[in-house]
Amino acid sequence: MSDLDKLFCPKSVAIVGASKNPKKIGYELVSNILAGGYEGKLFPVNPEGADVMGLKSFTSVKLIPGDVDLAVIAVPAVYVADVIEDCGQKGIKSLIVISSGFKEVGNTELEDKILSIVRKYGMRMLGPNVFGLYYAPSRMNATFGLSRVFPGNIAFITQSGALGIAMMGWTNLYHIGVSAVISMGNKADIEESDMLDYLTGDEMTKAVLIYIEGAKDGRRLMASLKGSTLKKPVIILKSGRTEKGASAAASHTGSLAGSDKVYDAAFKQSGALRAYDFAQAFDWAKLMTLQPPPQNENCLIITNGGGVGVMTTDACEESGVTIWPLPDDLQSEFKKLMPVFGNFKNPVDLTGQAYEESYSKSLELAFKDPRIGSIIVLYCQTAITDPVAIAKSIIDTCESQHCDKPLVASFIGGQQCDEAMRKLDERAIPAYPIPERAVSALASYYRWKRYTDRLEEKSAQS
Ligand code: COA
Asked: Is the C-beta atom of 49 inside 6 A of ligand 1?
């Protein structure tokens, strides 16, 4: 059992600073927890003892009957130490401190004071200065971010609160499912390493995405990354890459960004995948949470457009994805599925006359052949074919075959292509509007797979 179990899966939660006023954070916290479908006990705490959203309130955590596993604190900073002392006396072991007004504004003394109370009672504290924690397995949305979050398999840990809340909106827009959203704030007690260690053992989380400006304890973070990347991909977005960016990070969260080259080397050594922008990070995570890792180095491209096939081949070659020269036996199989002017080498070009059946038959061939380790399927909009019908044929083929290799798709065209890609995404086939984005995701999956294979080989030799 981890000492963070009560933070992630509490049976009872107190919201200190709960308010009836819909404009206050203390209202939003109660409202989001209720909207998320949390099934444990919920206790608002407010000096008036006034009921909040139909729930009985208490004037102090100490007056709540029975055990409380987690306290979420949203009162002005000057009252936080007293509230934490009460929580300690009540036997509460986990805290989320939403309140700002500590180290981030130079109030180091107050932050040290609350930390010493946390230590005195053996509690664990997330924050201060956070927007909260969402955890899908416990259906707990203890944040003042969005009330609606799609459950899924990406865990998102963020040092920036505003960015974190914005990302919750963004994942909603693109229907990207998350297993956890964690705001790190000032990291007085709990750091990214604690969260990574916890999420490594979390079954729902298939990939972890971290936004970080600077590590408090670089060595510890590296050790946690090494442990996590063995089990699941960890994607890192570290800002402060440039001198000016680093100084902006110092004034944003007080992070000592350190030399970016050192971070870069540390991420590589620990098998973490460094992304350079949010779209890229989520593109990668989408593939890694929806599809199995590559089975071998041989990648196959299936397309209906020669030009886009060539561009995708370039992107693959440049990013370390090997386009497999197809052996004669497979060439002659593919040849049967296309008009005489098609191309049965890799990329396999089914031509602009490729209908649903050409795609499904080609995919069947590719799924069945163990020499193929990954597949990129491309579609360019044409006047004589229907992208949504083609997407459906791809989905049906995937679902009727046992496929142990990753498949990524890119549909290039207008609104109908968007609709087709939404259908693919919904059925766990990651689709991207630009083929280079699909290749970038696949290349990052290959990097992670090669890293873990190397480690496995080494440990087998020793
Ligand atoms: N115990 C219980 N409740 C208390 C309390 C205490 N010791 N002290 C105050 N409260 C209650 C208040 O009475 C109020 O409830 P009410 O609306 O029913 O009167 C509620 O807690 C909030 O207190 P209030 O003084 O109205 O503060 P606020 O809501 O304006 O602000 C914070 C409180 C915590 C939200 C604010 O101080 C803050 O830190 N905001 C920044 C949060 C943030 O951005 N975090 C980082 C995100 S990344």
From this structure: no
